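Appendix C reproduces, verbatim, an entry submitted by the partner laboratory led by Prof. M.T., so that reviewers can inspect both the input and the predicted structure.
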Amino acid sequence: MENKFKFMLINDNKIFFSLFSILPISIIAGPTVSLINVLLIFFLYFFVFFKNKHYKFLFKDKTIYLLLIICIYLIFNSLISIDYEVGLNRNLGFIRFLFFFIAINYFFYISQKNLKIINIWTVFIIIFATDVYFERFFGANIFGWGAYEINNIKQPHGTRVMSFFKDEPIAGAYLNGFIFLICGYLLSINKNKKKLHLPLILLLLYLLFSILVTGERSNSLKALFGMVLFLSSIDFIKLKSKIIIFFVLILSFVLIISNSNYLKNRYFGQLYSAAFLEKDSKFFEENIYIKLYKSGIKVFKNYPLLGVGNKNYRVEACSDKAIELNYFCMTHPHQVYFEFLAEHGLIGSTILLFVFFFLMFKNLKIMILSQNYIQIGALLYLLFTFIPLLPSGSFFSDFNITLFFINFSLMYSVSKNTNIFFKKKNLS
């Protein structure tokens, strides 16, 4: 019986490994491919769930219990939405991430050697970062995508870097979704060596500054502050070495920007103009993000308790009454807190923020004491998702929620101290 169980574990592991290894590629391939990949992981684990009778104990776990509360809340949110059909698929679809989270925990429960999957992710992210540099300095990526002009027609995103996303300026957000995990993994490998070797430092800087050259200011700030906090938290690096690394970080930042007119204008020129040259202009009134934030607040004030419903900001803000109510018509407010308030109201926002923050900090003491760098990296990414006022994508979009749950799931699964399966007995 024991041998049979081990055989099943091996077979499960091979399939899980294959599906998890292509996660970074599936996200680039688009929402449909990413959805199919996550659903395959969902259905595979769902089979394991019943085969190994995990239902007997899993839903007694506090983490699963709280994630289940979010699933139930989102279904309720669909029922009270101003247009329930708009957000129904998104809300019902959230349950796949509940099982996605469990599946990743199960994957690392089967074998801690599965951490090697991050080697595959690292190789692909290096390729992606290289393509970002290529596009920034040559005007188009290796496939010719992202050109400023095609057949003498200027493209809508100007000189923003698209890389493999072709027509979406989200390369920096994508890199941010993996860079802290990779950084944590590489640091973990070097942990026993008690020092950082030059090739590792250069690789981390290479990945970090690939986000910078995309021109995505919010994601660049997250990456820079995240790396500073990350390196500050590492116990085996001496203070002198940390100071040197921070100095190199700042110097490299300045040099890269100073050698690109686009980046100089993107990071300094626009901010300088707003602060010093446009005092008499209506910068804060005309800025697109300020308009979106104000619009999000107005929607919230009109629906203060329950909001308009997930994905329903666009329904309300782009309705016939939008001009009368002075809404700004767009898909979402482009800031996670304003999005939550507008679409979920005070009650829904409280539920979502309480659950996510509780689960993020639930094992903080364990992570700090164990100095698990993958967990620390994942936590940093999750925290930066909730930075106040900083522009962001829609939280529940396929792209963002997938990156969020990859990091959230790994934060729990990579350590025996926090993996939900290592808490259980008699799994077999």
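The beta strands are 149-150, 153-154. Additional entries are available on request from the coordinating office.
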